[in-house]
Amino acid sequence: MIKLKYFTFYIFLLSILCFNQKKAFANEQKNVLIINSYHSGNLWSDSEEIGLLRELHTRNDNLNIFIEFLDAKHFPDFFQESDFFNLLKAKYNGIKLSLIIVIDNPALDFMLERRKHFFFEVPIVFCGINGYTKSMLKDESAITGVAEILGTRKTIELMRKIHPDVNEILIVNDYTKTGKLTMSEAQNQIQSINDIKISFIDNLPVKELITKLKSMPATSLVLLLSYSVDSESVILDNNKDYSSLIESISSVPVYAVHNERIGSGIIGGYMLSGTDHGKRAGEIASEILHGKNPDNIQVDTNPDFSLILDYNQLLSKHIALNNIPENAIVRNKPISIYQKYWLYIWITIFIVVILIVAVFVLLLNIIKRRITEDKLKEAKDHYLNIFENAQEGIFHSRIDGKLLQANKSFAKLIGYDNPIELLNDNSFNTASIYVDHCQRNRFLDSIKFENEVKAFVFEAYKKDGSRIWIYEDAHLVGDFSSPDAFLEGFTIDITQTVNSQQEIYKSEQKYRSLFESMSEGVALHEIIHDSYGTPIDYRIIDTNQQFETILGIKREFAKGKLATELYQTEKPLYFTEFLSVAESGKPLNFEVYNESFSKYFKISAFSNEKGSFATVFSDITLQKDHHQEIERVNRELENRIIERTEELNLALESVEQSNEELKILNISLAEESIKLHDAYDILEQKDIELEKFNSILEKKVLDRTNELLDAKLKLEDVSNLKSIVINNLGHELRTPLNGILGFASLLKKETEDSEQLEFVNLIFSSAVRLKNTLNSILALTELETGASKLFFEAIHLPGVIENFTMLMQEEANSHNLKLYALINDEKTFAKLDEYLLQQILFNLTDNAIKFTRTGEIQIILDSVIENNQNLVMIKIKDTGIGISERNLKTIFEPFRQVSEGLNRSHEGVGLGLTITQKMVELLEGQIQIESIDSVGTTVILLFNKLEM
After folding, report:
1. Nearest Cα to 563, choosing from 575, 555, 547?
2. Pairing of strands 124-129, 143-147
3. Residue 260 has what DSSP assignment?
4. Residue-by-residue DSSP string for 551-601
5. Distances in Å between the alpha carbon of 222 and those of 154, 213, 256, 272, 757?
6. pLDDT reported for residue 948
7. Which of 301, 664, 906, 918 to pair with 759, CA 20 to 30 A apart?
8. What does the pLDDT average to over 418-425?
């Protein structure tokens, strides 16, 4: 305790020392020199000085400020003399200046010319500089400030809006250096305005100026810029002088661009405030005094003017208030009683309303209590009615399996006539109905550690010993170890669904076995159209093993490829023939030689659905080679006959001389004839054998084709049966579910008893879970059967992802997670079905939110090139629980989850990623998952990029 006191005392002393050091640093005196271009009493420079000094004193302590006036309006050349500079040099020779501030152009010109002789190390801040350009500060350092940019163009546009009949605007300004710079800036601003006459006055004395203005027509206006010295060096530098000038031309409306002119007879305009201008310079000066390098501060060239109008002048010129812009600031406008006392008026009204509302609330509360009591009794009856008549089995049981309560549907599910018979059967126990007792143990483990079990499917015994499949949701009420704890939940008989799925699986396996065992190559295709609906290509959907054997192309590589891409051809192979089959449905058989494969093929094509077709093909190169060999033998025999005939003719000519020789030749000819006859017999026999071989081969191909057609028809029948079963099941389940959800929502609003409200919440949450599960199963069925109709269009992905991120923001916030999008390519387009893409993003982002306890979720959009293809890559990256390497292998399988069985920690039936994968494949994309257990998961989507 004593040590703690000493430690506190030391900390106190240390804080005092630090404070004193800081105070000593803050009290270090700094000298600032302000050089005003004009004299005390000049409206504009005085207002600049006020704003400047106010800001300096607000932001800085212990400043010593010196002010010098160049008096450039009374003595325009004196400040340029060396005598004046020597005077300043003598005054500040012994003073260390921290900063010099110059007001208006003459002071800046003076410092730029003279600083190198005395003030070269002192930083400079300027304000009120007309006609500012970067070249003014060329080769200068440690100098910055605020440029004076007037709202000349915006004021002229305002004048034309308020006075639509005006045809001439005269701009008044003097011909001092500042006046010339102001005129140059105004000319630059209005140079594009050429539908109205805009002119500047000559360098006139005040008297001649008044005479010129009085002669202006009624359809003209005057814009007063900077007029403080006339050609005779008469100075106008206060409101009295300007009021006299403006009163002399009161028949013509006068506008201005300086805030200080308000009150001198002008109507108004887009005005620059000298005070605000000086304040901004004071902010920059304070930054430098606090240590910031002036070379790192950009010159402020952003105009900061406001639309200000004089109420009295608007009335005198008969200008209606509804003709002025809404953002205008109207000065001198009279204040109404409501504007003066609006706060008190509204407080009084608020108090009266509160009192009235309080009385009504008390009355309504009394009435509501009576109505609530009646509705509570009615709600209780409704709950009991729902419990008794629900189509789902609802039960309450102890943890050891002793049944406490059940409804009619639960009793019938187990094989009892009614709940009374079930409850009176002392031998019945919910733990004994499990066919696999390990499932019961997993059920209890989930209840023990998670307090609930969701989407639990198990095989159970009925009263008569038969077996059924049950879907169950249950919730623990109370502490698991407490003897008063009990379970409540609901059950559904899904035996028919499980059996149907098993039959479908068997049928699919049978079809796949036939498909794979065929000796011919088989490929399934779909026709691809361009954006105008014209057929341009076909895609390979699936192939059998013989496809790979015959063509030498890996079936995994072929699947999903376009024909032109797979076979490396400019046009799809045999596209005209295949398109005819896909469009008409008429089968086609033909033989063809393919140079790419150097083989002869016999191809059969058929279609049972428009837009798709199947091909069955075989390699007949050997048969063709056999035919060619036979033809070659025939040609050789014919040549031999021709040669022998010629030889015989020659021999006959010589044989005429000798009968003996003739006999010999006849004998030789007979022998040759016998040989030729034998050769023809051999050739004829080979033709017969070849014809038989072709007949057998054609019959075999025809039989295989018929078998494939029968298998395809059976598969379609099974698929249609699957769709009908699932759709009927969905309809039969959705109807009671909607009723349960409706009554449960009504009970949640009207029930105040906490115990009854807990029952109602259980009914509602269980119904919602069942409905979500049903929707997932129906969605998967729709995707598998191809019932989804897609609408592909060019979509701008950055906009879609940003809108989607905004929609999911509230859901992420409710889980204390940070969700944001990173768009790395703002010009990314893809040809996709936008609704299906939104569904994919929702499924993946919802998964990320569900499995992320803390951290953030990123949705990243980028463009990549893979295998010489331009692709769009979308990443959904979270910092969630991650997925182990073992589970990554089965993550896309239906009804599989990272946490399965009784120990799983999240809801769902494990169809989300399965459905998402099928959606991605429908969009011709790819989905990949990268994950590290306990670190996070990244889901990668790849789609073909559309070049716009």
Report:
1. 575
2. parallel
3. G
4. H---HHHHTT-BHHHHHT-SS-TTHHHHHHHHHH---EEEEEEETTTTEEE
5. 14, 8, 8, 18, 77
6. 67
7. 906
8. 86
Is the separation of the CB atoms in 292 and 187 below 8 Å? no
CA distances from 862 to 659, 856, 870 (A): 101, 19, 11
- Spatial contact of 44 and 260, defined as CB atoms under 8 Å apart: yes
Find the helix or strand (DSSP H, E) in which 124 lies: strand 124-129
In this structure, of 60-74, 230-244, 262-276, 670-684, the range with the lowest mean pLDDT score is 670-684
Residue 272 makes CB contacts below 8 A (sequence gap 6+) with 148, 149, 150, 151, 257, 258, 259, 303, 304, 305
32 and 103 in contact (C-beta within 8 Å)?
A: no
Residue 743 to residue 647: CA distance in whole angstroms: 110
**What burial class does residue 373 get, using C-beta atoms within 10 Å of its C-beta: 0-12 exposed, 13-18 middle, 19+ buried?**
exposed
Q: What angle do CA 451, 457, 462 make, to 5 degrees?
A: 110
**Helices and strands per DSSP (H, E), number in the chain:** 26, 29
Q: Answer yes or no: are the C-beta atoms of 770 and 737 closer than 8 Å.
A: yes
d(CA 120, CA 141): 9
609-621 per-position pLDDT tens digit: 888 999 999 888 8
Rg (CA), the chain: 48
Nearest CA to 88 out of 76, 100, 75 is that of 100
For residue range 653-673, list pLDDT tens digits in order: 654 554 554 455 455 545 555
The number of residues making up the chain comes to 948
- Closest listed residue to residue 777, CA positions, set 386, 442, 498: 498
Q: Which of 22-31, 295-304, 331-340, 800-809 has the lowest mean pLDDT?
A: 22-31
Residue 662: the pLDDT is 43
CA nearest to 107, candidates 38, 183, 182: 38
**What are the tokens at 186?**
């105004």
